[in-house]
Amino acid sequence: MKRLILFTLSLIALCAQPADIMAQGKDLVVVMNRNYTYEDPRWNQSVTLKQGEAITVVDDGSANYDYWPYPAANVVIPKKVTRLAGTKGEHYIIINGTNVRFREGPSTRYGYYCYNAENTASVYHNQFIHDNNKPKTDDFGLAARWEPYYLPKGTRLPYLGQQNGFYKTKFNNNIFYISAKYCIRK
Question: DSSP class of residue 17?
Answer without folding.
Answer: -
